[in-house]
Amino acid sequence: MKTRADEQDQELAALVRLRDEDIDTSDIPEATDWSKAVVGKFYRPIKEPVTLRMDLDVLVWLKSEGPGYQTRINTLLRAAMTGRSQAKAPLSREIEAAPSVLSVGELRFPGLEKHGELEKYEHLAQLIEGRHSLFAPTS
Length: 139
Hints:
Layout: H1 4-17, H2 56-63, H3 69-82, H4 92-97, H5 110-114, H6 122-131
């Protein structure tokens, strides 16, 4: 018994075997106006699952903007890779404007506050306060 998938496979195989000059395109109008064409509209880069170890404070900061933190990581890394100074990530302006040392009182995690999870990260705030920097190594 032939399934619909088998029939489609056969049709596709027959189309692949056709030469370009054997394809009848007489009923298809020629495209002459490409002014509204968009390059890469349907391009989706291949994604590779990876395991990434990062500092907890950096992860909390990325997640604090809400869903999509992996996309933000990818956008920030792509901006670094291509050497663009203005990344299109929502956090890019904050990265460029952030001072090198932040005190706990200036740190804001609106996504965590919104979902009532800020209390879970109290130890993180204490670590940052103890180091006097968001990025200082442990002593």
